[in-house]
Amino acid sequence: MVRAVAQTLRDCLANAPAERFFWDRTVHVCVNHLARGTALGGRLAELAGRSVLLATSSQLTTALVLIELDGVARRLTILPPDTATDHLATLISCAEADAIVIDAGTPECAAFDLPARITCAPAVVSADEHPLPHVPTKWLLLTSGTSGVPKMVAHSHASLTAPIGAGKRPDGAVVWGTFYDIRRYGGLQIFLRAVIGGASLVLSSAGEPIADHIRRLAKHGVTHLSGTPSHWRRALMSPEIRKIAPRYVRLSGEIADQPILDSLRAAFPEAGVSHAYASTEAGVAFEVSDGLAGFPAAFIEHDRDGVELKVVDGSLRIRSARTASRYVGAQQPELLDRDGFVDTGDMVELLGDRYAFAGRKGGIINIGGLKVHPEEIEAVINRHPQVRMSLVRPKQSPVTGAIVIADVVLRCECECPDAELQVKDDILALCRAALPRHKVPAAISFVPSLDVAATGKLARRHG
After folding, report:
1. What are phi and psi of 329, to 5 degrees?
2. Cα-based angle 33, 36, 39 (whole degrees, multiple of 5)
3. Taking Cα atoms as reference points, which of 147, 129, 121, 140 lies closest to residue 46?
4. pTM for this one?
5. Which residue in 125, 222, 344, 369 has the most C-beta neighbors within 10 A?
6. Which residue ranges form the domains of the chain, and what is each CATH number?
């Protein structure tokens, strides 16, 4: 028997099979207590029907407030922690915010001068709240990967929770963990899975060493774990990874190439390994669980769970009830085309009976008029057994305008210069065998690490 879809996140607490917890680096909260309590100091009614800016510094307080305000606030605008201060006034105006929720770690800012201001605590206290009228809450999320003021898109409770479904029985034994920040779409999806699925959740913490985070995941018995391929590559470099044994491993946010899928299968042979395609604008489009990179061509040919895909000029487009409805603010572009599809900007190629992701439309490198997707070259470099991760970038050239070079992180250091030279030669041989000449890196540098942005994706630079 399929359960009815919960109207709000707070409604989901009534279905909790047992006590479940949210843990951050220093504090934990029993989420069940929110069914009869508050983290807002009994001031929930002041936010009813308002457009609320959520500017909390802690993921834990963010999680508590999202549960309390879904179905109460007219709008919820979630600010990621790296939001630039000089963008705040514009974002507040676009969101029509008239209230703000902060916590003890929120920095003071003149742009936060809003009519209603409430401080949230990372704890739940008893409260005799009077029932409030249900309001269909619009969730405003900031997009990533843009320069200047980030765009905001409008989601609903229905579009955000549609990929999760209502028919699964809550399982109190599930403990979700995520390398994401829940204030961005990828992490928010994991938070929602925990709330709706009756699970506990181990939250990430900015600046926390990866080894410490993995030890916390092990301490709390993580069973389901999610992150970008870059998150996972960094995690697999830590010896602490052997302390966890999740039964479900999930990747999203970046191209999941075959080497990272194979590495996760080797590290967690008993776990289900899936990679999902999702974006803030398009929502979760599909999940692939066959252990192979890319996705079957049959996904394009058929409506799957209400999700339609098509490829236009090599770019993947998506139509479903999971997509955002629009960009928010004046003079914003249309999010949906005339047929209701979102153009993801992710380029795909049909190889036999399977589509492979080539890279971002806006990330193409021009080599003498020839187009190069850096992700395509990285996928080849990452096949080398000594390589943990790589980043391909352009370098100016007086002849072709640009050439490609690669920064490579090895699984372990080479013992001598000759061994290092041999690995470079082997990587170049792989590239020459698999790629056209103009895509072969002109130079390879071994580096100890690669920068990962707050979104969990490789920080790509141009130059």
Report:
1. 115, 165
2. 65
3. 129
4. 0.91
5. 222
6. 9-351 (3.40.50.12780), 364-446 (3.30.300.30)
